[in-house]
Amino acid sequence: MKSCVFWVGPNLRNSSRVGVIAIVGGMVVAIRELSVELGGHLVLKDVHLDVTAGEILALVGVNGAGKSTLLRCLAGLLRPTSGQVTVLGSAPDGAPAFWRDVAFVAEEPSWYPGLTVREHLELVGITHGVRDRARIDAVVDEFGLRERAEASPITLSSGQRRRVMLAAALLRPSRLLLLDEPEQALDSEFRSRLGGRLSAYADGGGSVVLAAHDAAFVRSCSARQAVVADGQVDCE
Ligand SMILES: Nc1ncnc2c1ncn2[C@@H]1O[C@H](COP(=O)(O)OP(=O)(O)OP(=O)(O)O)[C@@H](O)[C@H]1O
């Protein structure tokens, strides 16, 4: 094993695997010869991709290009047809230890039925060792949710629901954020604020892989771009 590079920033202090898993050369994601066949169609073909600690990678491409498919492979929700996917030193396995270090925001919002916005955030916080009410309050404010904090997410607008999902992902410690079209349904001001927030997360040593359609949003988070087309991923 080559030299180990650890960066323990504000988002990472409570991380379960800091100091346990060695990230060779700061590599957080390593994809080698990844192919994925869905419904008899080769969606991804021999993809090779690396993401380092503190990097934001934006997957861009037309509808159906395979961006969500790639994110689902990184989250361990989809088994590749062939090739290797390594996340934080291991194959994504969906085990609790994996989810302690990785936060995933899917394209479709989901939440715990019967809980208010604040209760949802508190539950996510408790699950990941964040019990500080002031921290929950700060996130509620940061994501513009104060007036709807006691409401059920089902009664929120689509942009407000997206904010709840993003707040939950950024509230807890993690080392890698996987975000499927996080800018979707957000107004322009909040898109640009989210870009700044993700940049700060990366400055703290976290890595982000996101799929996005909004070029201005991708620029606002200073992301490296990877174009997904014809089953291939071409990085800048
Ligand atoms: N379960 C499935 N069975 C068969 N085909 C699938 C399945 N899931 C996805 N696909 C196909 O795989 C291709 C890639 O889909 P994917 O959702 O990854 O695209 P995307 O780049 O995220 O698109 P969008 O920008 O519209 O979100 C599409 O042609 C889609 O129809």
TrEMBL record:
Gene3D superfamilies, per the entry: P-loop containing nucleotide triphosphate hydrolases (3.40.50.300)
SMART domains the UniProt entry points to: AAA
InterPro entries: AAA+_ATPase, ABC_transporter-like_ATP-bd, ABC_transporter-like_CS, ABC_Transporter_VariousFunc, P-loop_NTPase
Domain (ABC transporter): residue spans on this chain: 29-236
Superkingdom: Bacteria
Keywords, ordered alphabetically: ATP-binding, Nucleotide-binding, Transport
Protein name according to UniProt: Heme ABC exporter ATP-binding subunit CcmA
Pfam families to which the protein is assigned, alphabetical: ABC_tran
Any coiled-coil regions, as ranges: none
GO molecular function, one term: ATP hydrolysis activity
Species annotation: Allocatelliglobosispora scoriae
SUPFAM superfamilies given in the database record: P-loop containing nucleoside triphosphate hydrolases (SSF52540)
